[in-house]
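Records of this kind hold a single protein each, on a pair of labelled lines. Below, a sample record shows both lines together.
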Amino acid sequence: MARTEWNHVPDNLPLAVNPLFYWPPNPKAVVVWYWSAWFPISINLAIVALAYAAYTWTAPTLGEATTPGLWMLEILIRNLLIVTILAQGLHILFHSSQLQGPDHKYDPRPFPRQGRVFTFNNQFWDNVFWALASGVTIWSAYECLIWFSMANGYASVWLWSDGWVWFLAVFLLIPVWESFYFYWIHRLLHTNNLYRFHALHHRNTDIGPWSGLSMHPIEHLFYFGTALIHFVVPTHPVHMICHLMFYGLYAITTHTGFEGIWVSGRKRLQLGMFHHQMHHRYFEVNYGSLDVPWDKFFGTFHDGTPAGKAMMKERLKTRKRN
């Protein structure tokens, strides 16, 4: 891609999807894909650890959750602190102090921007407001609802003693469910009736960590509605905490606008996602993730190459003619 369009592009273009969906099968590549998603250091593993810490120190017991109480406020405060520390820490690292420099920033434009399109005429404060006032509030409300429901028997609870295989498997299945749920909810939000809500998120054509959760309250209801599956599938409260953190914190880490954290010329941690950065630039490609390639199945995949861009333009022209 031309440097006038992107300041930085990944070295691994064209973007590859999960090798589980390639033919002929390549078991070694599949194992490497899933192993690298979790080990040795990954966002997935960090979220599981954080969920366990939150469950241990900042969550009610099922007995306490049978009735509304101060435990609900504790959940809200905990989520506000986690989001603020993570999003602002990454904002300082990548944008306000530019401690890593501009070399691995995808978009060449400076972030944040000013303008009447943003609440308070300022992209940063717009993003902070919607992420905290709407995003964390609705995230916490879903968590409180499911705690209350598990405690009162409206949602089934799966304990370690009920079977450790399923207990561990749920953590591994959360990203798989995310790939399915997020793609279809995202496509729904791009329909004519709902895009007016999703447009608030798409104010951010260049993105920073606070942009990930900067959404309209209606979109947050859809986005964190992923957790309603815990009314159907028996899980433990720690799974539910992890699930909501996965949605909330991944939105922050994948919207850094940078490829990752680099130290001494090496990428030490993958953060930003070029696949999704292109969605913010082009709007009508890459609705999902690379783990389950729904975009490839439905013709909305942009692999980051000039050929991918040409395919996107042709698809949009064909749709206009029809």
Notes: The chain has a mean pLDDT of 94. Residues 19-321 form one domain.
